[in-house]
């Protein structure tokens, strides 16, 4: 399913990440000297100062760090209620990514620490092409 | 540490000025800034020709500092500062100006915040573009961009970790409203009950309407000069005992994983050390309150109570009128108005001069004034002020 969402506005440091997401690939920059993950991608490692890194695939597993349920539109044209989650990635405790929630629009069933798995939602551009995607998290069973 | 910190009490706030607070000022942010500055100079007994420095913080929503300098007729601007950032920077704008005066860079600096936050640039959206920050690309596709949403994300994590309830948040709003009813400037004058709070509509869970600050058209300005000079002027000086900035984690990784402790916890020890004080020395606290949980969080992170105990302090009445640590004695951003931290500073000055009327904290000699505790923009800042002896 694709719906109209604000398109991601990538910069030169993030365009490759968004391209991966559009292919439904979930990657993160990782220091090739100390192996610490860097989110968002940056030219330098905040842990060791190294300038070398590469994109590496993530498991897509994480836990809910927090979530919000929008009940007011703030002047924007978005559905109410709608839920946004903040996910702590399994790879490293300080990797926190916002994303959409594939479950109930009012966030029913969410709790801090809930195990989740990444998914993707295609966004239609104005020309109707589905050339963008965003993260859409869902519960991870088992 | 030995000896007195070189910055302590060397500079002073010599004057404060405020415009009217409204929902539609009908004038530019430049005119608002100039009105507040004129009022602050009058308060101090200074002329525009005495000013040689200008400082403000803003997020692309207000006039540039150097245009204000030009308007004031300053021919040789010895200090100027346009700090990018929201309320987290409010105390640092003033702290940097005071440090510049202490260092002899300038003699008399005006600091202000001017914003048409209701009629012009609403933080909560109404279709304006996302703030100029590369981090928003990771949020905006999920319709996740406004401050209430951002702070709700942190607020839930904090509430979940420490078992903080909606009623705990409501008591913050109610206590501040009580102060506002004693403040003729306050935009919100009607008393607020717990039922009113709980029945107010949900904005973004877990926040109700009364968890959120106001949006106000206003400017507030202060005049910073040397303590020596301030003692020759019209008002009793309020000394800048210390200023600090710190923290740096955002919704995105910066090597920290705890969403329930803010950057204030990092700067607080430096702030108190530089003033040669401890939290028990603070008589009145004006804590940045864009949203209710920030008050509880800062009571903990500035060391007034242990983590998780902020709600109990508020429930005990300690932060209310007549309590041991009155907090946001003007009503704060929740009930007085939203001038991005500078109205908190002006209130602290009123309290330390003994000018706060029915909401005066008896014997207030030392005040803590804080910026937004560091969420969203990462860093935070704060000032310790004291009445001149």
Number of helices of chain B: 12
How far from one another are the termini of chain B? Answer: 25 Å
Supply the helix-strand structural class of chain B: alpha/beta
Number of helices of chain A: 1
Strand and helix map with partners:
The complex is a heterodimer of chains A (142) and B (389).
Chain A: E1 2-3, H1 15-22, E2 27-31, E3 37-38, E4 53-57, E5 61-70, E6 82-89, E7 96-101, E8 115-117, E9 120-123, E10 132-139
Parallel strand pairs in A: 1-9, 7-10
Antiparallel strand pairs in A: 2-3, 2-4, 5-6, 5-8, 6-7, 8-10, 9-10
Chain B: E1 11-18, H1 29-44, E2 53-58, H2 65-72, E3 79-84, H3 90-102, E4 108-116, H4 147-162, H5 166-180, H6 194-199, E5 202-205, E6 207-208, E7 217-226, H7 227-230, E8 238-247, H8 264-275, E9 284-286, H9 293-301, H10 310-315, H11 332-335, H12 342-353, E10 366-370, E11 379-387
Parallel strand pairs in B: 2-3, 2-4, 9-10
Antiparallel strand pairs in B: 1-7, 1-8, 4-7, 5-6, 8-11, 10-11
Written description of the protein model:
The complex is a heterodimer of chains A (about 140) and B (about 400). Chain A is mainly beta and about 140 residues long. Chain A has one helix spanning about 15-20; strands spanning about 1-5, 25-30, 35-40, 55, 60-70, 80-90, 95-100, 115, 120-125, 130-140. In chain A, the strands form two sheets. A five-stranded mixed β-barrel of chain A has the order 5-6-7-10-8. In chain A, strand 2 and strand 3 form a beta hairpin. Chain B is an alpha/beta fold and about 400 residues long. In chain B, the strands form two sheets. Chain B has a nine-stranded mixed β-sheet with strand order 3-2-4-7-1-8-11-10-9, with helices on both faces. The longest helix of chain B has 16 residues, at about 30-45. Chain B is globular, with a radius of gyration of 19 Å. Chain B starts with 10 loop residues before the first strand and ends with a strand. The model of chain B has no long low-confidence stretch (mean pLDDT about 95). Chains A and B meet through strand 3, strand 5, strand 6 and strand 7 of A and helix 4 and strand 5 of B. Strand 5 of chain A pairs antiparallel with strand 5 of chain B, so a sheet runs across the interface.
